Amino acid sequence: MGEQRRKGLARLRYSRFVEDQFRQHYAGLNNVRVRALLVLVACGVVLITGLGMAEHRVSAITATFELAITMPLLMATLIASIQGERHQIYQYLLAASALCVGLIVTSVALRAGLHGTPYYFGAEVAWIFTVWLILGLRFWHAAAIASLISGAYVWGLVHWGFGSQEALFESLLLLGANVIGALACFELEVAARDSFLESRRLSDLADRDGLTGLYNRRAYNNYMERVWRQSRRDESQLTIVLIDIDHFKDFNDRYGHQAGDDALKRVAEVISLGAQRPLDFAARFGGEEFALVLYGPAGGFGHDLPENIRSQIEGLAVADAGPGGRARLTVSVGVAIVSPGAGRSLAGAVQLADEALYQAKEEGRNRVVVREARLVHIETGRFRASHPRCAVG
């Protein structure tokens, strides 16, 4: 978390998965205000275009730009703002809408200046501040849009031969507005990122299993829903590994609950080492049941890692067995390698791993069974009634 904070605040970007969560959070912070502003702006564009056409002061090209390009963009942005799962495209639509409106404001202000009403320049400055501070654009998006709008205005000053003093004065005012807006926007995003990480840290504490430090079942359920959607978008594989300690109740009865707790911690340490990449995830359901979710192409990795985990746990000396030596635990492991798509469901993927785990137990325990969705037909889950993990999805 500390590394995420340093990178995220310095470069305004976290690792991929955390960054995606932040962007969705950040978009939601401003949605209500932005929706109202989008409606007002759309009404303003229609009014400006209508008055210009009525007085024959707007060319056909300008009217087309305002009504056929800007208005549909504003409507698409408004629709995307209501759909939380479209937060990525929403930001791009919002940036494009801000640019189009900014170009309209620039055109109006320049034409007004040519006709002796320079106070319309105030609308240009106001929209620059709106881009930086009101729309909720992330810093780098706001910087790009504000720069393009300001550049277009300065180009207009030069192209239409405004007086040198007037052009210099307005250019310096625009520069000052952009500097102030940039500093404020940067600080606002830094504060939002810092608050987001702190909230995430507190949520992370609530999502951890108190004994092993792995994520708990609630966190697993939430994570699986998110990573399933992510893998479907990326067309990437998921490997779901379900791990069950063999005869753990007998171990607990023989060596005591303290030895059982110590054994669970040791097993959890081995399992957690398998979740090394940003989107990998290790969880404890409760009791002696664990899950490991690996994001990305499986290849040999999806087969070798579960076997390595099984053999490492078998090699642990987890309790004093008396003069005869040290007691050991074994685990049964079920692995499902799936490629999320239109014909797949999350519940079916978890069921496939459950079927593999059941097969490992039926065949004598202390073994790994791997199933790939493209090679097998999912049977009716015999673990479904007794294993709450199968309710996911």
Would you spell out the secondary-structure blueprint of this structure?
Elements lengths: L1 H10 L4 H39 L5 H23 L4 H28 L6 H14 L4 H21 L4 H43 L10 H18 L3 E8 L2 H8 L1 H16 L8 E6 L2 E7 L5 H14 L4 E2 L5 E2 L3 E8 L7 H17 L5 E5 L21
Parallel strand pairs: 6-7
Antiparallel strand pairs: 1-3, 1-6, 2-3, 4-5
Rg (C-alpha, Å): 29 Å
List unreliable stretches of 5+ residues: 378-393
Instruction: Write the H/E string, N to C.
Output: HHHHHHHHEHHEEHEEEHE
Oligomer: single chain
**Main sheet characteristics:** 5 strands, mixed
The average pLDDT score comes to 85
Widest beta sheet: strand line-up: 2-3-1-6-7
**Structural class, from secondary structure content?**
alpha+beta
Find the count of extended strands (DSSP E, 2+ residues).
Answer: 7
The number of helical segments is: 12
Give the DSSP E fraction (strand runs of 2 or more residues). Answer: 5-15%
N-to-C span: 28 Å
Question: How would you sum up this structure, described in words?
Answer:
By secondary structure, the protein is of the alpha+beta class. Helix content is 64%, strand content 10%. It folds into two domains: 2-205, no CATH class; 208-391, Reverse transcriptase/Diguanylate cyclase domain (Alpha-Beta Plaits, 2-Layer Sandwich). It has twelve helices and seven strands. A five-stranded mixed beta sheet has the order 2-3-1-6-7, sandwiched between helices. The protein has a two-stranded antiparallel ribbon with strand order 4-5. Strand 4 (319-320) and strand 5 form a beta hairpin. The longest helix is centred in the middle third of the chain and has 43 residues, at 164-206.
